[in-house]
Amino acid sequence: MAVRALSLAVLWLATAASAEWCPELKPVDEGDCPKEELGELVWHFNCDDRSLQVGDWCKAKNNECGVRKDLNNCYYKKPDADIYIVTALPEDMDDDPEPLPPQPGCPKLKPVKRSECPDESKNELVYFFSCDDVNLKKGDWCKANR
Fold first, then answer.
1. 19-25-29-30 Cα dihedral, nearest 10 degrees
2. Neighbour-count burial of 82, counting CB atoms closer than 10 A to its CB (0-12 exposed, 13-18 middle, 19+ buried)
3. 26-76 confidence digits (pLDDT tens)
4. Residue 25 φ then ψ, to 5°
5. Is 76 exposed, middle or buried (CB count within 10 Å of its CB: 0-12, 13-18, 19+)?
6. Which residues contact 12 (CB under 8 A, 6 or more apart)?
7. 83 has pLDDT over 50
8. What does the H/E/C string look like for the chain?
9. pLDDT in tens, 101-145
10. For a tag site, which of 8, 19, 109, 142 has the least CB within 10 Å?
């Protein structure tokens, strides 16, 4: 069973889409498709999302990064989903991102280095999948959603 590696930020991870940014992708084997009933979710609905990390699943959208829309390798919410897994990131990835200034009404957020991401095997979990959640408190982890 594939384990989904979350792309996380201590309190934020700046992301921006770029047509030129493409991770290395591998079609998911049918037996390793995410199982929604087990909590295995696809968070990225195009495969050129700059917030993707190694181990993340993505669903092909518009033939981005050489993916195929006719792969039909997984059942995910419906038959014939085209699911890929990230096997490597482009060389130009910045492992020490600079934080952007907070916007009015938003908490102050700090990006994390890849080496600082929480480890699920140590029960370091992320409970916020949106960094604009009103319940976010100092020290909480959140996953960037934009």
1. -10
2. buried
3. 999 999 999 988 888 898 998 998 889 999 999 998 889 999 889 999 998
4. -125, 150
5. buried
6. 99, 109, 110, 111, 131, 142, 144
7. yes
8. CCCCCCCCECCCCCCCCCCCCCCEEEECCHHHCCCHHHCCCCCECCCCCCCCCCCCEEECCCCHHHCCCCCCCECCCCCCECEEEEEECCCCCCCCCCCCCCCCCCCCCCCCCHHHCCCHHHCCCCCECCCCCCCCCCCCCECCCC
9. 656 666 677 787 777 888 878 888 787 777 777 777 777 878 775
10. 19
Residue carrying the six token digits 């038959």 = 79
**What six digits make up the tokens of 132?**
């604009």
Phi, psi of 142 (to 5 degrees): -145, 155
Burial per residue of 41-65, b for 16 or more beta-carbon CB atoms within 10 angstroms, e otherwise: ebbbeebbbbbbbeebbbbbeeebb
- What is the amino acid identity at position 116? E
Q: What are the tokens at 136?
A: 């976010």
The reported pTM is 0.53
